[in-house]
Structure of G-protein coupled receptors family 1 profile domain-containing protein:
Amino acid sequence: MERENQSSISEFLLLGLSSQPEEQQIIFWLFLFVYLVTVIGNLLIILAIGLDARLHSPMYFFLANLSFTDICTSSVTIPKMLVSHIIGSSSISFVECMMQMYFFITFVNMDGFLLMVMAYDRYMAICRPLHYTTVMRPGLCILLVAISWVITNLHALLHTLLMAGLSFYMERENQSSISEFLLLGLSSQPEEQQIIFWLFLFVYLVTVIGNLLIILAIGLDARLHSPMYFFLANLSFADICFPSITIPKMLVNHMIGRNSISYVECMMQMYFFISFGNMDGFLLMVMAYDRYMAICRPLHYTTVMRPGICILLVAISWVVPNLHALLHTLLMAQLSFCDDNTIPHFLCDPYAVRKLSCSDTYISDLVVFTEGGVVLVTPFTCIAISYVFIFSNVMKIPSTQGIQKALSTCGSHLTVVFLYYGALMGIYLRPSSTYTGVDTVASVIFTVMTPMFNPFIYSLRNQDMKVALQRLIISKTIL
């Protein structure tokens, strides 16, 4: 911990390219013209590629993504500059600055990765023309673009969190900052810690193996290549990532006899904790919509739940939680932490960390209750509405067997929904000041237990999944 006679600043001043009013006016109109040309030009390219079937090839798919990225790169900075000129203000808040930096780094580097992918596409088309169609399949093209997005976002996140961890000072005042936190875990007793270690290790291995088996079964069994199982595979992947953010760190700390976590590690853990935690909710919402379409609109199911729509729904389920996590992590990074750096938890839980802050957390708490509440409650509300329609429709089925068949496809999903949201809402729909040790234990339900239960719930209650898993296990045993 370092103590200095300083206080942090809450905003920056953007001086622009010139301090002369006449030059500022010229720059304003020039940038406005360039921005409009950029947006309109790239939108035309995206529309042309989307509407012309002859352009539905890998090269133009990558070009459409590049055009989208070019629109985003310009939109991160220029509109803010234009608005600042119009209202006569050159200030930008700390959180706005960090978010602008995050997206600036992301989209600028995204351009480089997409250009690399396009170069590889041209290499295959010119140097390996006979293998082009077999290599540059749609799945590989989507994977290359997805990898480009993931790497650039992680790169931007790392640099933004490192920047947010720096101190920016203005006025003099007694204040201190910390460079690491201490994770106290679930118990201070050595005997209990040993039991918790082996219990968490067992749960983690079961979670990873169980969810991996579901992903493999869905991927290898052609009969499971349907929207419902596509969403389930994504849920299983998220359930592998969710505990992997926290449990390995806890297990390593126990083995090496340390319970510290650096400030940057803590912020990164918090980001992925919020991201994957909320991603589960969004995927459960998408799965509820899929069940609604299958039961209430069966004649329209195949036309509505097309592969493109399924990919879009999953993409939204990834993007929204990541943006939500970024906002809350940057708000947390803006807070000051003075003397107390002990977190009564085995992870950097947002509420537990916020409670340690010596800053005013009013704005942070307000965002949690407004934006955070919307992100948390919206999926649950959509799930509830979907099942109201499902149950009202099921009750109209004349045969008992038909009712049982319809409900059997929803039972496993509902079990997971109640388990997940029961714990989540009980902890996080309250002010951070009310966070207690009971909430720490309760958080284990959705951070550790729910990801482990999911494979059992979906495999034991789903006949198709049971058969696919049996085939997978038997085939591996024979091999």
